[in-house]
Each structure stands twice: as C-alpha cells, then as structure tokens.
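Q: Sequence in, structure out?
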Amino acid sequence: MSNTIENVALMTKVNSDEAYQTAKSVNMILLQKKINVFAILPLCGEKMTSVSINTIKDLNIDLILAIGGDGTTLKAFRTPPFDIPVLSVNIGGHKGILSELKSGSIDYIIESLLLDNHFYDRRVRIQASIEGVKTAPALNDILLTRVSLTRTPLISATIMGEEVKERMDGLVISTPTGSTGHSFSIGGPVLHESLECVLLSPLASVNKLPFLVLPLEEVKIKSSHDIVLVVDGQETHRISAGKEVTVSRFPIDAQFLRTRKRGARQLEKLGFI
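A: Exactly. Output:
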C-alpha cells in the first residue's frame, strides 16, 4: 500500500465530548493540510463532511482515524472495505491497548502522516461461519458462551482433525492481538501480536481443559445447548443447540498505522513496562 494519505475518515467514541473535541481539532488541521476529511456518523459538526458507515466503501478512504478507546478501534476494523488501515488514538479509553497515540500527540500525528514517518503493521483476524453465514471479522476474539445459567453445555471443538469434548461455560478463540483481552482476564497467556496462530481459552471447564495455542487452521464447534457467539465484544449471534460454528482466518489482515516500532507493546500497555 502507498504511504500517501489523501482521504481520511474520522470515527469517534459514542457520547464522548473529549473524543468529539479531538476530532474537531484533527479535522481543522487536516483540512489546512489539503487532506480530505470525512466524519463517520454520529460525528458531525461545522466544516465536517459527515457520512454513514455504510458509504465508506465508496469514498476511496486511505485511513480511518479511530478516536476513543479500544472499542472504537475494534469497530473501525469492522468497517468495510476491510483493508482500510486504522490509526488508533486513545481518548477516554481505559488502557488503550490497541492505541498508537494519545490526544496530546495530535500535531505529531499529522506531521507523521504528511512526512511519511509511519508504517503499516499487519495483524491476523478471524471470522466465524454459522452454517455458511459469515460474521464480521474479529481482530481480538470470538466468544462462545452458554445461554442458560442452570445448564452447563457439552461443547465439542474439532481442532486439526481431532475432536475434543468438554463440559464448560464456553470458549474464547483469540488472535494474538486479542490475547490481552477476554482470554487474559481468565488467566490466558499473552501472545506476541506478530504471531500467526489462535488461542483457545476454555471458560470454567469441568475437567480443566488447558489453554491451547494452535496453528491458524479451522476450528469447528458444536454445543449441546444454545449458546451466544460474540464478535469482539460488540456483535452477538444466538446459536441453537447442535448447530456447527466454524472459526477460521479472515482473508484480509488488519492494518494498523504505526508511528514508531515497539517490541513489547502489549507489556507496555498492560503496565508491566
């Protein structure tokens, strides 16, 4: 991909005045630099060209600037076309593990874009298929969890041609990028973001099924009871008992726009460095 940035879309955290004000500042600076700016609704304001998320695919966008927390970044990566790079600015987020910059770096952001002092950092994504119907891609994880609070389902996972059956509350299938998310909160390992693999993390497994790091191959899952499938903590699908779910690599990798290289980004964001 060319490093030239001509058309930028701004996406902000919903109901965040701080994110909105930052977007206004970014908009004015970019316009002064002769860069075309589009504000993704509900963001709107003076001198902003507001567009719906569904029309982004028709605008030849070079970059989405996600202003908010990690939730905003995850949403940006689900915006088609799926090959648009994302620059994440942490405004109002908790740790901002996915973010590249904070609000105080706005001027630095713009100069980096204009002077080509940036690079594109690819990350694998995964996608679920529910009896042939595909979900949006997940940058972090796909969670499958029980619907009934009084019944523990028997969950079958076919991995590398072998079937594993276990009674448990659910299963988290994470990318290396998402290993710092839901899986980490239940004791899973942190995988370096550049790895090409998936992490299977069982939820309350009766027989203590271990965490599994696997090659990027299809994982087929069935449950004896109804479950809910959640994409990146934001998009939900109810799955009836016995229906097969296939999780596989999404064909288009996510692209972060980065301004500097950091070898231990995740540990830094988690507060260990």
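The CA atoms of residues 149 and 157 lie 21 Å apart.
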